[in-house]
């Protein structure tokens, strides 16, 4: 994660932003670690000024709310899309299996047609035609 750009969203001085970004980088922190930031944690990394810790924690809290809201919106969108797809598939299946004049629309499996006799007759006709042409 680019800690300098993230910390620059606070009102900290640029020199402090750079210093704290290096601290986060040296401690091998990633974006997922922001959720675990608290006063003691920041102090243990060397951020001793309480006002600075407070600004960083405000930014962390704000970012956490945004990411939670965003993931909820994506999940809601997915649920709506699944429901719409389900309705569409049910509608299409109903169109294929129901007749307009029938009172109830029950799904039924149509029997397969046997084309073997037609195929045999067509092949016999073709073979006789080929043999007469020669």
TrEMBL record:
Coiled coil: none annotated. The lineage of its organism: Eukaryota, Viridiplantae, Streptophyta, Embryophyta, Tracheophyta. Signal peptide: none annotated. Gene3D superfamilies: Transcription Factor, Ets-1. Residues 4-59 form the SAM domain. This is SAM domain-containing protein. It comes from Solanum commersonii.
């Amino acid at each position: 994660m680019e800690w300098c750009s993230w910390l620059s969203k606070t009102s900290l001085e640029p020199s402090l932003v750079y210093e704290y970004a290096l601290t986060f980088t040296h401690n091998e922190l990633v974006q997922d670690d922001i959720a675990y930031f608290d006063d003691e944690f920041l102090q243990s990394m060397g951020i001793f000024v309480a006002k600075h810790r407070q600004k960083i924690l405000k930014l962390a809290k704000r970012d956490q709310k945004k990411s939670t809201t965003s993931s909820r919106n994506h999940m809601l969108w997915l649920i709506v899309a699944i429901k719409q797809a389900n309705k569409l598939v049910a509608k299409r299946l109903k169109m294929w299996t129901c007749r307009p004049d029938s009172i109830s629309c029950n799904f039924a499996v149509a029997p397969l047609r046997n084309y073997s006799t037609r195929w045999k007759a067509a092949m016999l006709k073709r073979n006789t035609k080929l043999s007469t042409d020669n």
